[in-house]
Amino acid sequence: MPDTLVRNAAGRDVVTRINGNEAVPYLGVGAFQPTGRKASPPIARCADYPSDGNKQVPDLKTALVNAGLRDGMTVSTHHHFRDGDLVANRIFDIAAELGIKDLRWLPSAAFPCHAPMIRHLESGVIHHIEGSMNGPLGDFASSGRMRGMGVLRSHGGRYQAIQDGEVHIDIAVIAAPTADPFGNANGVNGPSACGGLGFALADSQYADRVIVVTDNLVPFPCVPWQIQGNHVDFVVVTDKVGEPSKIVSGTTNITRSPDRLFIAELTARFVQAAGLLRDGFSFQAGAGGTSLAFAIYLKEMMIRQGIRARFVRGGSTKYLVEMLNEGLTEYILDGQTFDLDGVRSMRDNPRHVHTNPFVSYNYHGKGNVASMIDICVLGATEVDLGFNANVVSHSDGRLLHGIGGWQNCLFSKCTILPIPSFRDRIPVIVDEVMTLCGPGELIDVIVTERGIAINPLRQDLIDATRNSSLPIKSIHQLKAEIEAICGGRPDRPDFTDNVIAAVKWVDGTVIDVVRQLA
Amino acid sequence: MTMTARSGRRGKDIRSDCWVQITLVENGGRSIALSSKVDVLYGRSIRALVDDVLAFFSIDHAAVEVEDAGALPYTIAARVEAAVRRLHPEETREYLLPAIPGTTAHSARDRFRRSRLYLPGNDPKLAINAGIHQPDGVILDLEDSVAPDSKDDARILVRNTLRAVDFQGAERMVRINQLPLGYEDLRAVVPQSPQLLLIPKCETARQVQEVDAAIGDILRERNLKTEIYLMPIIESALGALNALEIATASTAVVALAIGLEDYTADIGAERTLEGRESQWMRGAVVNAARAAGIQPIDTVFSDVGDMDGLRASAKEARSLGFDGKGCIHPRQIPVVHDAFAPDEQELARAKKIVLAFEDAERRGLGVVALGSKMIDPPVVKRAQRTITIALKAGLLAAEWREEDAHA
Lengths: 518, 407
Description:
The complex is a heterodimer of chains A (about 525) and B (about 400). With about 525 residues, chain A is α/β, with parallel strands linked by helices. Chain A folds into two domains: about 160 residues, Glutaconate Coenzyme A-transferase (3-Layer(aba) Sandwich); about 270 residues, Glutaconate Coenzyme A-transferase (3-Layer(aba) Sandwich). In chain A, the strands form eight sheets. Chain A has a nine-stranded mixed beta sheet. A seven-stranded parallel beta sheet of chain A has the order 5-14-13-10-6-7-8. The radius of gyration of chain A is 23 Å and the shape is globular. Helices cover about 45% and strands about 20% of the residues of chain B. In chain B, the strands form three sheets. An eight-stranded parallel beta barrel of chain B has the order 5-6-7-8-9-10-11-12, surrounded by four helices. In chain B, strands 1-2-4-3 form a four-stranded mixed beta sheet, with helices on one face. With about 400 residues, chain B is α/β, with parallel strands linked by helices. Classes of the chains: A alpha/beta (about 525), B alpha/beta (about 400). The interface between A and B is medium-sized, with 23 and 25 residues.
């Protein structure tokens, strides 16, 4: 039976219960008022831990057993190694070996390397996943075969959910490139160095039990301690925690497509024409070939005009590192390291600052970095006439991507989506997005190869660029052009009534749901 | 009896295209097996289109397979038609989707031809967005970029491309094959009003006149009134020697282009970066074109990764007297436009001369003077041309005269 649905403030029919727990429908940007106090982990005492600080146990299985792994628990992992993670699969293989069932897996993101989890979903070891689902896992969930409801959260939303007690983590497993026997850990040293470990911060603070797994054990103290050993229960040494070469995925190379380069250049020209490029500004350029190309064009403009940024936020790449080293930005505030140049820079350069979702994105905090950024450039799979955007589902209805930091970044002072107007034959600008991930009121500009659409709410940007030579059009005009090219309005996929996943807004409310494909 | 024909392209790296196989059967009507990455969104529309093309060609019984990688409707229609024609080579009807507006617009003899972007005629992917890069011209190529066994397939695709793709103001050019193969190209593309045809490996005036006559015949036959310009490409020793007769072979010739790969091979030289081996030929073609009052256009620069090399090569072309250069990648276009644009000094001088000329005209003076110096008419003409180029390249605002007055 489908859950009872209610219409939320964005006009979407959403669930009010997720896996047995109550969920608040989205009320609008900034409308939901949380009450109460944050979650708190149980009080621990030093008497229960070795006074010499050595928390090492022989292997991961022992650590999981000692942590009390049993049916129905929530186990969390992190995606610092992206597609090179070697730990998450092992946890659930061990759980299967121990005959444990109905676990909830809470990854900060899942990657194609986690396809073996399907076996555990099918056998009942894993009940459901709360985290990004794409590739094989996305197909599995989209076909309705996952028993529980998936929950898609932004990086900031994941921190918020753990902090607010929406999700209780029983056991957090943190794969760390370097750690000491006490549990202090970092991602910048060791043969598997991957950069920061920020995504594991909430887990280390709020989980009942915390296991650090490393392949590079150093004597106490392990510095910097991105993860503090005082939160950690057990330390495990293993052969290899991750494949750092695989943190470089396809999304972290500059695009070679002439059309994407064109869009990136047009975006940079827009930023210039809108007067956003001024000394001391800040910007965020995530992974994704177009974002990276945008940063390169921006850099050229900055050099020509003698402009320096105060800080740049983002997944760091060699391109941002170059800007830092050339003095074009004073700081990198790094939430996720996308290549090995980024790893080295974070280790060696004090101006390359390790951040985490609490600092950058958490909406239930006393402010965050995301809203202080002048320009933020993001992707999307679909944008509609109300500037609403979708990042999680494909036009054919399958789950495609996680939300990442995308929702959180929408709070920047100028949020720009540089996107192709259609991919192959698939229109990107549509009447109504299939899955609502970001409300249009926070999305300021769409830049496509066929023109730029400015959100009518941003009269200031419209005025600033009125006399420019930029191809500014209405979003309706863009959509009409694209439909003429693609051969009319596309059909929509057929869905059943069965809700397979809920999409959370940054405040934990439900902004939309994803249904099972018919 | 069964007969099977195929058309189009498929494979891992193929995008915006499709592969079609038609097997004629005795009975059972038309069946269409479609696999498409956009099946959910456009599956219905693709099946309907394929069926419509078959019905148009009176194919009542056929088993059709379509492997689609996001092809636009005009591509799907072209591929199906190409397969039908392989089954029925005598077929003369054409399946034409409605043309977008503006595809019959006229060009101008002396329009800008700084950049012309080559697009392989049998690959739809690159053509769809070619216009956004704002080349002065796009060349849908039926010649060297198309394999011999795909010529018929490409011809129909190019025909449909001319009707369906908005090149955003770029001059719509087609490079045909050498005659006699080129006759078939002409029959397919001429009725779609390409604005200019490139004649490859042109060596004599007669070759130009044959193409010109064939175009005239097709236009008359179809009762079409359109002017199609010609750009012969000089790619051989003989062509270079005959450059002037080629340039003046027909009033439709508006430009002479050169192709150096074939030329250097023809004269038995090695093609080098500095290009001393082609110096005489480039000079000869510039001379012939200027003598005929048409535009000389330089060859392509083939290393798409080397933007500095491209810039130097384009600047050299300009200094030799060429008006433009071929491009094989969209990112080359802005570099070429930039190289063909006047520099600051040139522009400042041109502005002074044009203002002086306009002032002299207003005052009814017969001579133009700048300070104490008389300015000859050709100098004025060149200055006007420099201003036009600068306006076009965005180096000068339309109201530069006022701004200049305030400065």
